[in-house]
Design a protein that fits this description.
One of its GO terms (biological process) is regulation of DNA-templated transcription. This protein starts with a strand and ends with a helix. Helix 2 packs parallel to helix 3 (65-75) and helix 14 crosses helix 16 (381-387). It is globular, with a radius of gyration of 27 Å. The chain folds into three domains: 5-138, Response regulator (Rossmann fold, 3-Layer(aba) Sandwich), CATH 3.40.50; 142-313, P-loop containing nucleotide triphosphate hydrolases (Rossmann fold); 316-387, Helicase, Ruva Protein, domain 3 (Orthogonal Bundle), CATH 1.10.8.60. Helix 1 links the parallel strand 1 and strand 2 (31-36). The protein contains 16 helices and twelve strands. The strands form three sheets. The chain has a five-stranded parallel β-sheet, sandwiched between helices. The chain has a five-stranded parallel β-sheet with strand order 7-8-11-6-12. Helix content is 46%, strand content 14%. By secondary structure, it is α/β, with parallel strands linked by helices.
């Protein structure tokens, strides 16, 4: 099924509005075209309706096109704008692009150029909407479940720290949810419209970590058959999450330190630098102070990373969150399996609250799934004794 694209034409000359509407409607029956005769009317329509694309004249009475563009982008930044003008000059074109216009076309517009620009602008607009929907789904996967004092304290810190550019070092045991904290910091930051790139430093062999992080040029080593950008470049304008940073080699640590100090990286085998704009969030399950004492971690890098320290509590330190976590996992597992959600009895929940959760939230999730699969119509205390034993 084709997607309807809603297009608004803001133009003070009625004849031009009619011609543009006719051209677009004849080009594609899925183009749903609306009109506004001046900037104020256009802004009113943008407020009250959702458009995929606005084609806007620049010189208009009441409110000119640049004002419309600036105001509309504040209200609905996802809308694509194509600006048109019979008084075109380079400065105006540059200014509208700086304000967020997709393109600028002089009057009278070349028909082929106009239609191509409209198609491209709509494609971009649809991608932005799809990415927003996807981001919301991703955000749901990275919710921080719980109302315990330690979790509420972390939520408060995230709220204060996320909008800043401060680097954050997240500590805590395996399975405590350090990656959830990293995702929340990114999602609540001004960088959320760009990428969050995750790197598990423990999963990459030490001889490949530098290439993975900083990229390489063709011929830098035996298997480098072409130039390749690294994770820092992929995260440009966004955030890089260096998980298990305590497992990173000392030589890679030196390069990360330089990236933090100078905002530049160099690909393996390259003789020129690449400028980057990346926020760094790191996490570790190790005691980095001890690693520093034993010569395995650079103290200067530690101080660069640990501007803000967030310690994620173990599940044993937040047992009061276990009922909420069980509820959350039971719902997710039912969705994954395509089955009805299975309830846990009060006795089952109380018994699970008493367990020693050495594997933290990850272990609890596995146990909940096991009980849902092996337990009765509702998960009872007896099911927990039978199937959740350590």
């Amino acid at each position: 099924m084709s997607k309807i694209s809603k297009i608004l034409i803001i133009e003070d000359e009625a004849a031009i509005r009619r011609v543009l509407s006719k051209i677009l409607e004849e080009e594609n029956p899925d183009y749903q075209v609306s009109e506004a005769e001046d900037g104020l009317q256009g802004i009113e329509k943008i407020k009250n309706e959702d458009f995929d694309l606005v084609i806007c004249d620049i010189k208009m009475p009441k409110m000119d096109g640049e004002e419309v563009l600036a105001m509309a982008k504040k209200m609905k930044p996802e809308i694509s704008f194509v600006m048109i003008s019979g008084h075109g000059d380079l400065e105006t074109a540059v200014n509208t692009m700086r304000l967020g216009a997709f393109d600028y076309i002089s009057k009278p517009p070349d028909l082929n150029r106009l239609l191509t620009t409209v198609r491209n602008a709509l494609e971009k607009s649809h991608l932005v909407v799809e990415n927003t929907i996807l981001k919301k789904k991703v955000s749901k996967n990275y919710q921080m479940i719980g109302n315990s004092e330690p979790i509420n304290r972390i939520k408060e810190i995230i709220e204060k720290v996320a909008p800043t550019e401060a680097r954050v070092l997240i500590t805590g045991g395996n399975g405590t949810g350090k990656e959830l904290v990293a995702h929340q910091l990114h999602e609540q930051s001004s960088r959320s419209k760009f990428t969050l790139v995750e790197v598990n430093c423990a999963a990459i062999p030490s001889e490949l970590i530098e290439s993975e992080l900083f990229g390489h040029v063709k011929g830098a080593f035996t298997s480098a058959v072409k130039d390749r950008a690294g994770k820092f470049e992929a995260a440009n304008k966004g955030t890089i999450f260096l998980d298990e940073i305590g497992d990173m080699s000392l030589s890679a640590q030196a390069k990360v330190l330089r990236a933090l100090q100078e905002n530049v990286i160099s690909r393996v085998g390259a003789d020129k630098d690449v400028k980057i704009d990346v926020r760094v969030i790191a996490a570790t399950n190790k005691d980095l102070r001890k690693e520093i004492e034993e010569g395995r971690f650079r103290e200067d890098l530690y101080h660069r990373l640990a501007v803000i320290l967030i310690k994620v509590p173990s599940l044993n330190e937040r047992r009061e969150d276990i009922p909420l976590l069980i509820e959350h996992f039971a719902e997710k597992i039912a969705q994954e399996h395509g089955t009805a959600k299975k309830e846990f009895t009060a006795g089952a929940i109380e018994l699970l609250k008493e367990y020693d959760w050495t594997g933290n939230i990850r272990e609890l999730r596995n146990v909940v799934e096991r009980l849902i699969i092996l337990g009765g119509k509702e998960v009872s205390k007896e099911d927990v004794v039978l199937f959740a034993s350590k």
